[in-house]
Amino acid sequence: MIHIFIINPFAGQKTFADDLRTKLSAIEGLNYFVFNTRCQGYEAELVKKVQNIFENENLRFYCCGGSGTMRNMLNGFEDLENAEVAFFPCGLTNDFLKVFGEDQARFYQIEELIDGDVITVDYIKTNQGVALNTFSVGWDSTVINKVEEYRILSMFGKQIPYICATLFALFRAKPQEYVIYLDDKRVEGKFAEVFLGNGNVLGGRLHFADAAFPTDGQGEYAIGPNKYAFGALPILMALSKENFEKVRKTCQCGHCSNIRLRRKDGMPFTMNFDGELVSDIREWEAQIVKQGLHLVVPKGVKL
Questions:
Q1: Where are the domains of the chain?
Q2: Residue 24: closest CA among 52, 3, 50, 41
Q3: Residue among 268, 271, 293, 264 nearest 126 (CA)
Q4: In which element (H, E) is residue 51 found?
Q5: CB 66 within 8 A of CB 132
Q6: 230 — pLDDT class (breaks 50, 70, 90)
Q7: How many Cβ atoms are within 10 Å of 8's Cβ, its own excluded?
């Protein structure tokens, strides 16, 4: 087997890429190659090139980055059912790994992943590509969009751009009218946020479902009500504190395998798709592909 490590050098600590190369060089008998991404989204192109170079070889790909890096990498495969992928996290949130509970800490040990087992998990397939964890529109996509504008404020602290972007989303981002199909159920109204996840955590702290089973072909959804500014704060607090009783009282929650979403006025919108923004969409279609991805986990780790 050839082990392919795709590193996002802009994720995590500045020394992450060099530290990983040092660890890999110390593993005796490991047949591997390391590639650094050059820019956002380049992971997909790297995956395609590597597959062409090592055609007919047995490959295992390692995502060395965060949720966005994983999403971009998965979109480089023509057929995910024939891919073998590991998640070596160094991003800000790495949300999907939270479905493994306390065992998520073991994913940070590269030796454990190299010697790991392969399990099959669900993934999200959409008309805009594939992802592993979540997509959302509303408060959260506004936050991601505004973070870049406030990036210069990170000199005062890494979280400052996110705090400023969150305040902007709360007080300036108005709920929109959406038409949503959840399997055969139609939901229509003015909503501040729409989540659908293969996992159940978004942005590192928003727990929009109390459980996630990413092997059952079902996604968990939560639809936030027509609230913004101070009216939205109690809902965000409930999501961040895992107060699922309040979440279920204030949001429409459930699970589905397929979802379609559009704005009622037909205008384009922007989605947060595993931490990466996808803009100018007029209709979003997604399905949970049951156990369609071969994911590498440390030995003995279970969902």
A1: 2-91, 134-290
A2: 3
A3: 271
A4: helix 42-53
A5: no
A6: confident
A7: 24
For residue range 58-95, list pLDDT tens digits in order: 999 999 998 989 999 999 999 998 999 999 998 777 89
Can you tell me the distance from the alpha carbon of 238 to that of 30, in angstroms, rounded to the nearest whole number? 46
The CATH number of the structural domain formed by 2-91 is: 3.40.50.10330
Q: Give the β-pairing of 258-263 and 84-89.
A: unpaired
**CATH for 134-290, options being 2.160.10.10, 2.60.200.40, 3.40.630.40, 2.30.42.10:** 2.60.200.40
Report the alpha-carbon angle 112-117-122, nearest 5.
115
Rounded Cα distance between 52 and 209, Å, is 40
Residue 46: its H or E element: helix 42-53
What would the pLDDT profile of 150-202 be if each residue is shown by its tens digit? 888 888 887 888 889 888 888 888 899 999 999 999 999 999 999 999 999 98
Q: Starting from the edge strand earliest in sequence, which strands make up the sheet with 269-273, in order?
A: 252-256, 219-224, 193-197, 134-138, 269-273, 276-281
Query: Can you give the pTM of this predicted structure?
Result: 0.92
Percent of the chain with pLDDT over 90: 67
